[in-house]
Design goal:
The structure is a homodimer. Chain A is built from 9 helices and 10 strands. By secondary structure, chain A is an alpha+beta fold. Chain A has one domain: oxygen-dependent coproporphyrinogen oxidase (3-Layer(aba) Sandwich). In chain A, helix 1 packs parallel to helix 5.
């Protein structure tokens, strides 16, 4: 498994995903920006906006290399080795509050001395939580995980609960999903097998999310539901700018800001102490933004 | 100068400021929330919304104490001493894009062993930069600084340029102002004299900003100007959530999230590669979002 091969497969994955989303959306197509990074490498940003279903979304491929900033080296406890990193990262912000926000990321990192690891994850952020939908989402993730390693789903599901959590709000970002990092072939899977898992996850995205897009975008919504969505998007901004490690890494390593921050929703609201009614659908959703829920049960 | 006296003066400052803003706004009044902090102390949040001029704003007083989280102690290189911190912090988001966003903060920190320091700052974020307005703003800050120490204005003006800067956007937040930290009586001013400077700055806020509110809110604005404002507010969010030390400190020390994040604008937009026309007013403003501009010249 050479790094070039991994990057190439990620690029093909980006192709498949953008094609599927554009077809399902039916109106908007992706615009593409190629960019180069000062210091080495570059990427291919694909952006969709003002679609039938997707109000704003980005599917980013990048393959960058060079030397790491001191700050990052200290954090990762690495020496001076040049690094190589490639990945596909996406976030979709649908217009209709009944279609959940989604995020997916697969990535590979290596150093010249042979050290490598894979990371990634996928998580769903419904504006209104539908338990059946969350169950199906988790079942599909579990199925992919189980095909590769019996421990992956329980471990990575718990990891997502920890990762996609806003401590200062005491809320999870949504219904979670899976998150993993530093998979380096020491858990029984070879490098090749680990990559196969990562690609299977990447390939799950399009069928999984396109079905949700099709099913949920048919539902009409009220002014109140739209307003709740704009406020929930505020939490998404808070997570990405305060807590998300990928965003931080990108901004700290002189990444392409417009590509990194395409994750920001198109329109957002913040209201001081936004009030929701007792026993409302909004309250039901808030009550489910907790770690440790077994959605499959 | 006992800490109780400092906190009391800060509280009175909050009173004067909220009274002046509410009077100038003419429509909205402040709502007040008293809150207590797990671990010690509390605060008084005052929030204004949907006014004639101020769409959303907060003036926060707090006086908190307790032990510091490990993370903060490591960062500040402090030992185990219980801390005390009090301050007034405010941000105003006007509805009209011709009225600049403003931020002001004065704060005092002490440890049981007698270590103390003052910090603070004030900076102006116009949506459209008016050089004459920026000049008057800086002249007033300079006058307050010069009254107390000949080095304060040049030093703190440069500090604000460094502090209110978004490296990943290569833009300053606005036209700057002054920023200072760790004033601990070693620059020739006693503790009492330092506090007098801090209070003078705090007292400058209301007359300075209320004049801008009155003058600028008379101007009408276009759809395009409003849209530019919503996008510039996005930069404000990015600064506060990614870079602002006060926000980070608050969120890390189990502060009151709703009070800390009242700094978030009421409504925000993000567009991938937002386009502006050559030689437009928007471009003129972008060209002035630079460090090191001598606004007074």
């Amino acid at each position: 498994m050479q790094k070039e091969e991994i990057a190439e497969k990620f690029k093909e994955l980006q192709n498949r995903i953008t094609k599927a989303i554009a077809t399902t959306d039916g109106k908007a197509s992706f615009i593409e920006d190629l960019w180069e990074r000062d210091g080495g490498g570059g990427g291919r940003s694909r952006i969709i906006k003002e679609g039938n279903i997707i109000e704003k979304g980005g599917v980013q491929f990048s393959a960058v290399h060079g030397s790491l900033p001191e700050k990052i080296k200290l954090k990762l406890k690495l020496n001076n080795d040049p690094f190589f990193a490639t990945g596909v990262s996406l976030i979709m912000h649908p217009e209709n509050p009944h279609v959940p926000i989604i995020h997916m990321n697969v990535r590979y990192f290596e150093l010249e001395d042979g050290t490598f690891w894979f990371g990634g994850g996928i998580d769903l952020t419904p504006i209104y939580i539908n338990k059946q939908e969350a169950k199906e989402f988790h079942l599909q993730l579990k199925e992919v995980c189980d095909r590769h390693h019996p421990n992956y789903y329980p471990k990575f599901k718990a990891w997502a609960d920890e990762y996609f959590f806003l401590p200062f709000r005491n809320e999870t970002r949504g219904v979670g999903g899976i998150f993993f990092d530093h998979l380096n072939g020491t858990d029984g899977l070879s490098k090749k097998e680990t990559f196969a898992f990562v690609m299977d996850l990447g390939n799950l995205f399009a069928p999984l999310y396109c079905k949700i897009m099709r099913d949920n975008s048919k539902q009409s919504y009220s002014v109140q539901e739209k307003d709740w969505q704009l406020h929930r998007r505020g939490r998404y901004v808070e997570f990405n700018l305060v807590l998300d490690k990928g965003t931080k890494f990108g901004l700290d390593t002189n990444g392409r800001t417009e590509s990194i921050l395409v994750s920001m929703p198109p329109e957002v609201k913040w209201t001081y102490q936004y009030e929701i009614e007792a026993n409302s659908k909004e309250e039901q959703t808030l009550n489910l933004l907790k770690k440790g829920i077994n959605w499959i049960a």
